[in-house]
Amino acid sequence: MTPRLLHPYTKPAKAQLRELVRANGVRLWDSDDNEYIDGLGSLWYCQVGYGNEEIIDAVSDQLRKMSTYNVFDPWTSDIAEACASRIIEVSPHTDGRVFLCCSGSESVDTAFKIARLVAQLKGEPDRQIMIRRTRGYHGVNAAGTSLQGIAPNREGWGDLIPHIIEVDPDDIESAARVFAEHGPNIAAVISEPLQGAGGVYPPTDDYLRRLRQMCTEAGALMIADEVITGFGRTGEWFASQTYDVKPDLITFAKGVSSGYQPLGGVIVSRDVCDILEADPDFVFRHGYTYSGHPAAAAAGLANINIIEREGLVERANHIGTRFTAGLEAMKGDGSISGYRGIAAIWSAQLAEGTEYAQTCAVRDRMLDLGVICRPIGDSLAFCPPLIIEDDDIDKCLDVMDQAIKES
Ligand SMILES: Cc1ncc(COP(=O)(O)O)c(C=O)c1O
Fold first, then answer.
1. Cα–Cα dist 197/91, whole Å
2. Which long-range contacts (CB under 8 A, 24 or more apart) does 71-77 make?
3. What values do phi and psi take at 307, rounded to 5?
4. Is the minimum distance from the CB of 229 to ligand 1 under 6 angstroms?
5. Cα(407) to centroid of ligand 1, in Å?
6. Which of 100, 138, 140, 146, when mutated, tests ligand 1's pocket best, judged by the most ligand atoms within 8 Å of its CB?
7. Are both 205 and 131 inside the same structural domain?
8. Which numbered atom of ligand 1 lies nearest the CA of 139?
9. How far apart are CA 343 and CA 24, in angstroms?
10. Domain of residue 252, residue span
11. Global confidence as pTM
């Protein structure tokens, strides 16, 4: 059959892909009826697992009530407002506001534009520099591609957005030097509190706190990209809370709706809102047709209620304890050379010098044994639904151990 779907982040020439047909809880099944435990929550999301009837009902009820409409001036909707209020309630900015969109990439491009806009509104037209960290992943739209700290993802598209400076992701002195040289012209720094797609790297001690301090002193904004880390993943609603920093803008997506509908957005602090609201004639000329889409908002609202009611944020910490014990044992017996992560996001580093192709071979063997994880460089990443049970965590680790030993 001629393939008609052009797959994301896939070789277009690749012919053979595994075809999934159904999912329930933390499990998926392919068209040959092979069963997989999803150790990755699809792509770092699906906090509540698959097939949650409460979200399905909330979305279908909403589609019946008002299937779609926009929230551009002069409109708003009860469901978009309710979803925004719920996000704000669990966020570090309980007096802020939320912009809604449909993906992490849109949320990053929105935050980028807000950061530049704030400088323009404050009468600082030259404040345009954006700082990114090596290894950072910020999606695939124009700004997000330019802000990526993963070099191959920036290559091959022609010229990207100018005025972007990259800093070392672990050595905060690298950022300090850039601030010393360019401080008054820096609009914002973008940083995942814990870098996810780049390999699961928690911040080094004090990195985020010092970054916050530098932004404050220079009058720049701090953007925390919490597309992966938001909504319980690191054992608090947001990783900014886990690591005790207060960013000016927080981008989110993925876990906000557990992926049941495409939903993302930006949490905007009160200080930034004050700037946007200051001139009654100012128009925020940014927005997507589907910003605040009723079905997506209904999914987000129901999902947050479930995360709270089921105690899934606390559950993430339990998942962390279980993973740490298993990974520590594997390190002890030499199956892996190390591991990184916190709460419900982990990566296991294979033997020193492991090539990416070898990591993929281990991943493929794990798929044959019924466990999904993600190969990144010399490491295998896990980011399971927060409902995962202990036996299934153990199975993920046992299967990884077996696959490593067989490879
Ligand atoms: C930190 C971060 N930002 C942005 C994105 C882009 O999100 P999306 O794929 O929904 O556009 C991702 C996706 O993995 C991400 O991990």
1. 23
2. 71/100, 71/291, 71/292, 72/287, 72/291, 76/292, 77/292, 77/294, 77/297
3. -55, -45
4. no
5. 31
6. 138
7. yes
8. 6
9. 23
10. 54-309
11. 0.98
The pair of three-digit structure tokens given for residue 186, joined into one six-digit string: 């820096």
How far is CA 383 from its chain centroid?
11
Quote the number of domains for the chain: 2
Question: Which residue has the CA at smallest separation from atom 3 of ligand 1?
Answer: 138
Question: Of the residues 108, 109, 192, 231, which should be mutated to test ligand 1's pocket, given the most ligand atoms within 8 Å of the CB?
Answer: 108
List the CATH number of the domain containing 389: 3.90.1150.10
Assess whether the C-beta atom of 392 lies below 6 angstroms from ligand 1.
Answer: no
- Digit-by-digit pLDDT tens for the chain (407 residues) are 678 999 999 999 997 899 999 999 999 999 999 999 999 999 999 999 999 999 999 999 999 999 999 999 999 999 999 999 999 999 999 999 999 999 999 999 999 999 999 999 999 999 999 999 999 999 999 999 999 999 999 999 999 999 999 999 999 999 999 999 999 999 999 999 999 999 999 999 999 999 999 999 999 999 999 999 999 999 999 999 999 999 999 999 999 999 999 999 999 999 999 999 999 999 999 999 999 999 999 999 999 999 999 999 999 999 999 999 999 999 999 999 999 999 999 999 999 999 999 999 999 999 999 999 999 999 999 999 999 999 999 999 999 999 999 98
